[in-house]
Amino acid sequence: MENANGASRGVVPTEGELTAALQSLRSESPALGTPKVHALLLAQQPTWSVSEKRTRKVLQALGLVLSSGNSSSKPTGDRKYPASQLNPSLPLEQMTNAVKTKYFNDAKGKGLVATRKIEKGEVMWKEDPFALAAEWELYELQNKSLACFYCSTPMSHSSNAVLRCTSTSDSLACPATFCNRLCRSRAESLGGHSMLCPGANPASNELLAFVEKSQWQALHALSRCTARLVMRKKAAILKKGGQKERAEVGKAFEDDWAIYTALAVLSYEDRFKYAEEMGGEPDRAAWQKAHKLLVNAFDKERRKSNLAHDPVFDEELFSYEGFLRGLGRMSLNMESHGGIYAVHSHINHSCTPNTSVRHHDQSNALSRITVLASSDIEAGEELVITYVDPSLGVRERRKRLAEWGFGKCTCGRCMEEEKSLPPQIEPASGQPAAGPDMSDLSAEIKAGLGLL
């Protein structure tokens, strides 16, 4: 039977559950209108009671409703571009009054715009990472117990505040050391440390060894995100305490899940369709091995906490397709030093940036970023950073952006430099187009993994 709104009677999903499901559907079917998305939702979740009106309202809040006004900006043909959506639960106003989120269109996605005039040099906000895969020099220090495993700050063992992880399992001891009690507490409550602790979870050791050997930062970041999300989901399933405490635990998971699923995403398969055009070769055998190692690392916790009972969660984190989307999320959103940041991930690219990202707290919170204006920014103007080396020529900049599925950059600088470009020489008949120099074996392996 149906109610007055045409929705089947059944379980009413929470806002977080509905948001996650609709974000997943939209990323898989970006061209469908609201009625078809709603029909797909009910087909996937037959026990849910959701009206089309509620579906439309959530899609609108996420900036995911198609409109004719956006049609000229939408990607054309079969090519896929990174999918992006807003996170309605993002606590941006608690961090800054200088910027707000904005959904531009289906091609460009989301971004940040100034709410007022911002002076050059002004600090707009500071932000700690949602997850951190420390760059390799720091990761080596972490594994030698010479840098904090939570905030990545190098440290001296002469400090009385330094604390070690005490977990051991047979011959496996955890190398993690923390700046102080706060970092150790946050490593578990926010980072899910025990999920990737060789002592507490020996099954993770093979995954971490593979990460370090391959120096695959996207896989490392995805492993850290997965640890945090599994820890939050486990706590939400095993809710303890009073009603208030249980509600807080549930909300903590929903907020984290909203951050993860709102990250811009382009599956590794879709990305490499275009990398192959430029000479890159995807290493699918390595992808499959990495997926198996990640699933094995969390398998015990998945079974013990019945995580598979939430099909949306389990599919997005542990299916092979979800894993490839996860790798794409990490590669597209990772800050240059290895952090995934909820607000920073909104900033779009321009070859003439007006925003700078720095690590100023080097003595006590190295992973914390400080976002400041590198030029005056007017109210309503978009905040932009550069994703590529700005000293490169326009063709090389565009090539590097295209490798990540961003399409042709049409910023003011690119359009101006394009005017003075000499015509490109087409390859002679029967000759292959020039591709990147892959003579260096290390570079070839990294390109196949998606490290470049």
Notes on the protein architecture:
With 452 residues, this protein is mostly helical. It has helices spanning 15-28, 34-44, 52-62, 136-143, 181-189, 205-214, 217-237, 243-262, 268-275, 284-304, 311-318, 320-333, 394-402, 412-419, 441-449, and strands spanning 99-105, 109-114, 123-127, 131-132, 163-164, 168-169, 172-173, 177-178, 339-340, 348-349, 355-358, 369-373, 384-385. The strands form six sheets. It has a three-stranded antiparallel beta sheet, with no helix packed on it. A two-stranded antiparallel ribbon has the order 1-2. The longest helix has 21 residues, at 217-237. This is Histone-lysine N-methyltransferase SET5. It comes from Pterulicium gracile. It catalyses: L-lysyl-[histone] + S-adenosyl-L-methionine = N(6)-methyl-L-lysyl-[histone] + S-adenosyl-L-homocysteine + H(+). One of its GO terms (molecular function) is histone H4K20 methyltransferase activity.
Summarize the structure.
The protein is mainly alpha-helical.
Which tags fit this structure?
452 residues, 15 helices, disordered N terminus, disordered C terminus, SET_dom_sf
Shape: globular
Largest sheet: 3 strands, antiparallel
Strand content: 5-15%
Number of strands: 13
Please tally the helical runs, counting DSSP H or I stretches of 4 or more residues: 15
Order of the strands making up the biggest sheet = 3-12-11
